[in-house]
Amino acid sequence: MSYITAHVLDATAGVPARGVEIQLLTPDGEQLATGITDDDGRVGDLGPETLEPGAYRVTFGTGDYFTARGQQSFHPVVTVDFTVQAGEKHYHIPLLLSPFAYSTYRGS
């Protein structure tokens, strides 16, 4: 398992969101890693084995996901900014998604 993982669930359809592009970025936009959610809506390998403490950003390509499903959506991209603390072993970033709303939290 990588240091950063993510999971996307489509709350409207009640299924994992397969095929969502996810990017791991520095706050100034430097791309560190990319991934595409699998059949279970997960990216289990997003980036390096460790990150230096500090601020990072994960973006989810939600607009493309809904377009591929033939649905309109409000958020073309969902951006989650988070802070890596020294000594932490893993960060999991789940996203619960619908065409017009989303929620996220620090997973385990």
UniProtKB/TrEMBL annotation:
<keyword id="KW-0378">Hydrolase</keyword>
<dbReference type="Pfam" id="PF00576">
    <property type="entry name" value="Transthyretin"/>
</dbReference>
<dbReference type="InterPro" id="IPR000895">
    <property type="entry name" value="Transthyretin/HIU_hydrolase"/>
</dbReference>
<feature type="domain" description="Transthyretin/hydroxyisourate hydrolase">
    <location>
        <begin position="4"/>
        <end position="107"/>
    </location>
</feature>
<dbReference type="InterPro" id="IPR036817">
    <property type="entry name" value="Transthyretin/HIU_hydrolase_sf"/>
</dbReference>
<protein>
    <recommendedName>
        <fullName>5-hydroxyisourate hydrolase</fullName>
        <ecNumber>3.5.2.17</ecNumber>
    </recommendedName>
</protein>
<feature type="binding site">
    <location>
        <position position="42"/>
    </location>
    <ligand>
        <name>substrate</name>
    </ligand>
</feature>
<dbReference type="GO" id="GO:0006144">
    <property type="term" value="P:purine nucleobase metabolic process"/>
</dbReference>
<feature type="binding site">
    <location>
        <position position="105"/>
    </location>
    <ligand>
        <name>substrate</name>
    </ligand>
</feature>
<dbReference type="InterPro" id="IPR014306">
    <property type="entry name" value="Hydroxyisourate_hydrolase"/>
</dbReference>
<keyword id="KW-0659">Purine metabolism</keyword>
<feature type="binding site">
    <location>
        <position position="7"/>
    </location>
    <ligand>
        <name>substrate</name>
    </ligand>
</feature>
<dbReference type="GO" id="GO:0033971">
    <property type="term" value="F:hydroxyisourate hydrolase activity"/>
</dbReference>
<comment type="similarity">
    <text>Belongs to the transthyretin family. 5-hydroxyisourate hydrolase subfamily.</text>
</comment>
<dbReference type="InterPro" id="IPR023416">
    <property type="entry name" value="Transthyretin/HIU_hydrolase_d"/>
</dbReference>
<dbReference type="InterPro" id="IPR023418">
    <property type="entry name" value="Thyroxine_BS"/>
</dbReference>
<comment type="function">
    <text>Catalyzes the hydrolysis of 5-hydroxyisourate (HIU) to 2-oxo-4-hydroxy-4-carboxy-5-ureidoimidazoline (OHCU).</text>
</comment>
<comment type="subunit">
    <text>Homotetramer.</text>
</comment>
